[in-house]
Amino acid sequence: MELHSAELDWITPEAEQTIARHARVSTKDPHRAEYAKLLGYCIEHGHWSVFEQASASFEISTTRAISPQILRHRSFVYQELSQRYCDPIETLSVSDTPWKFELRAQAEKNRQSSQNILPLYMCEHFWEKLEDLDKQVKELYSEMLSKGVARECARNLLPLYTPTRLHMSGTIRSFIHYVGLRGQQDTQREHRLIARSIGCQLANLLPTVVKAIKESEESSLKGWDFLR
Question: Is residue 182 flagged as an active site residue?
């Protein structure tokens, strides 16, 4: 897997049909075949609880700089690679050059955001220094482990660009709102790539739901606009 990407683990079988059937729990015939209008109505009128009747899980590849942003979404359940249990450098092979991350300029009006990518000559200058630093960190980390230092102690020197892997499980309702927020342009680019990767896969798995989302005027769903 590439850094800052997501792949489906599993999803409730026939998720849209399941949601529709459960939404019709109070009707005489909850198994009716047509459900597009029903799901569209639920989204348009904010009846979100029905979308808790199906769930999904995604495997995410990212870095320790981004995973805390993902973990803030408390409606999900997570399992993340443990640096106390394994050597992430040895266990993960998502990137041979994680230190060569994208370098962007600080946004002028937003303290927590960035803007245009820095000129190539400047990026190469910093990447060269980062490569040297990365080599030193890996050598010291490996030496500490070989001398018997516990992983839970040695991990303190690992940089935030160290790759990590986590599984993110939640209801379809949670994923709808996660992509709706994190797919927006003001989310950090690396996190936005993950959210949009999940959104693209859900668009294929839940075409009726995502079509209704795209037609919605709900501001909390603007992160789905990249599909429009």
Answer: yes
Non-local (6+) Cβ contacts of 26 within 8 A are none
75-96 pLDDT, tens digit per residue, is 999 999 999 999 988 888 766 7
Q: How far apart are CA 24 and CA 11, in angstroms?
A: 21
Q: Which of 182, 192, 196, 228 is catalytic?
A: 182
Q: What angle do CA 40, 45, 48 make, to 5 degrees?
A: 80
Cα 38 → chain centroid? 29
Quick one: which of 98, 97, 19, 1 has its CA closest to 58?
1
Taking the C-alpha atoms of residue 88 and residue 106, their distance in angstroms, rounded to an integer, is 30
Cβ neighbours around 76 below 10 Å, total = 20
Burial string for 27-36 (b: 16+ CB within 10 Å, else e) reads: eeeeeeeebe
Distance CA 213, CA 195 (A): 15
Q: Is the pTM of the predicted complex or chain greater than 0.90? A: yes
